[in-house]
Amino acid sequence: MNTVLYIKANPKPDDVSRTFRIANQFIEAYKLKNRDDNIVTLDLYKEGINFLSPQDVKKHVAKPGEGKDDPVLKYAYQFLAADKYVFAEPLWNLGVPAILKAYIDYICVTNITFKYTANGPVGLCQGKKAVNITARGGEYSTGPNAAWELGDKYLKTILGFLGITDYTTIAANSLDIVGVDTETIISKAISDARRIAETF
């Protein structure tokens, strides 16, 4: 049995968020194929993730197994314990929502999710897999604006730093372009999400 950590980073409710419309369909399709797996939903806004305080930063060099009940370090241990990750967030101002970056700061803890060696940092989350589901107002997957997309690129890079290299992106682009049929774009993304979920 695998544990899937479903990380939601959008203040909008599920029925309003275009990102969640797609991501929830991914989760439903995944459940149909993996009925015994444990899916843990972590809504960052409901969780109340804050920016790290000076005291919190001091905890970020932990001894292995230390602080599992700590209100900050518990997120790193939860992340390490999962086998698969589903991220769901919109592209905001060319990057991820600040609350998702704050969460990344919570989970990147030395000796829990990565460590330093004589040859540099090594991720401790190897052998796991992730999918990122994102909705974007413009076209950022291809064309000249692709270079401006710093949300999915950042997430892929930081997860690679933690040792997670099996990474898939599901993106719905151009949702705020005037005259575009947004429902067709979302429907295509949902179809892609359900297909990918079957083998995730």
From TrEMBL:
<dbReference type="InterPro" id="IPR050104">
    <property type="entry name" value="FMN-dep_NADH:Q_OxRdtase_AzoR1"/>
</dbReference>
<dbReference type="InterPro" id="IPR023048">
    <property type="entry name" value="NADH:quinone_OxRdtase_FMN_depd"/>
</dbReference>
<keyword id="KW-0288">FMN</keyword>
<comment type="subunit">
    <text>Homodimer.</text>
</comment>
<dbReference type="InterPro" id="IPR029039">
    <property type="entry name" value="Flavoprotein-like_sf"/>
</dbReference>
<dbReference type="GO" id="GO:0016652">
    <property type="term" value="F:oxidoreductase activity, acting on NAD(P)H as acceptor"/>
</dbReference>
<keyword id="KW-0520">NAD</keyword>
<comment type="function">
    <text>Quinone reductase that provides resistance to thiol-specific stress caused by electrophilic quinones.</text>
</comment>
<comment type="function">
    <text>Also exhibits azoreductase activity. Catalyzes the reductive cleavage of the azo bond in aromatic azo compounds to the corresponding amines.</text>
</comment>
<dbReference type="GO" id="GO:0009055">
    <property type="term" value="F:electron transfer activity"/>
</dbReference>
<dbReference type="GO" id="GO:0010181">
    <property type="term" value="F:FMN binding"/>
</dbReference>
<comment type="similarity">
    <text>Belongs to the azoreductase type 1 family.</text>
</comment>
<dbReference type="Pfam" id="PF02525">
    <property type="entry name" value="Flavodoxin_2"/>
</dbReference>
<dbReference type="InterPro" id="IPR003680">
    <property type="entry name" value="Flavodoxin_fold"/>
</dbReference>
<keyword id="KW-0285">Flavoprotein</keyword>
<dbReference type="GO" id="GO:0016655">
    <property type="term" value="F:oxidoreductase activity, acting on NAD(P)H, quinone or similar compound as acceptor"/>
</dbReference>
<keyword id="KW-0560">Oxidoreductase</keyword>
<protein>
    <recommendedName>
        <fullName>FMN dependent NADH:quinone oxidoreductase</fullName>
        <ecNumber>1.6.5.-</ecNumber>
        <ecNumber>1.7.1.17</ecNumber>
    </recommendedName>
</protein>
<feature type="domain" description="Flavodoxin-like fold">
    <location>
        <begin position="3"/>
        <end position="194"/>
    </location>
</feature>
